[in-house]
Amino acid sequence: MKAKQHAIEDAAKKTAEMQTRLREFAKMYNVIKNERNKCVNLIQTSTQRAGEMREKIKILHNEIEILQQSANNKERKVKQEKRKYASIVVLRDNLQLELVNRDT
After folding, report:
1. Tell me: the pLDDT tens digits for 83-93?
2. Angle at CA 18, nearest 5°, toward 13 and 30?
3. pLDDT digit string (tens) for 28-79?
């Protein structure tokens, strides 16, 4: 009878130990699960932000291209105007020379 009682007490003690270990593992599981959820949320946020940044970069590249084209067009127009101005200056000088030559 004492052996049975001892076996029962031993089994109860092992059961209590197992329950304590089970609670500890359950706590660790919850901590790890919460950390995993945080990481998943960070990954989702980062992925979304990266997508937004890629879209913004694409828009900025398009804007740069438009501005470069505009600058090139303006530069071309300035060069044309400079050529016109230079030819007009030459024409004026020639006309002034003609007038001087007529007067003399």
Report:
1. 999 999 999 99
2. 150
3. 999 999 999 999 999 999 999 999 999 999 999 999 999 999 999 999 999 9
Q: Which 3-state string (H, E, C) describes the chain?
A: CHHHHHHHHHHHHHHHHHHHHHHHHHHHHHHHHHHHHHHHHHHHHHHHHHHHHHHHHHHHHHHHHHHHHHHHHHHHHHHHHHHHHHHHHHHHHHHHHHHHHHHC
At 43, list the tokens.
């990954």
Distance CA(60)–CA(33), nearest Å, equals 40
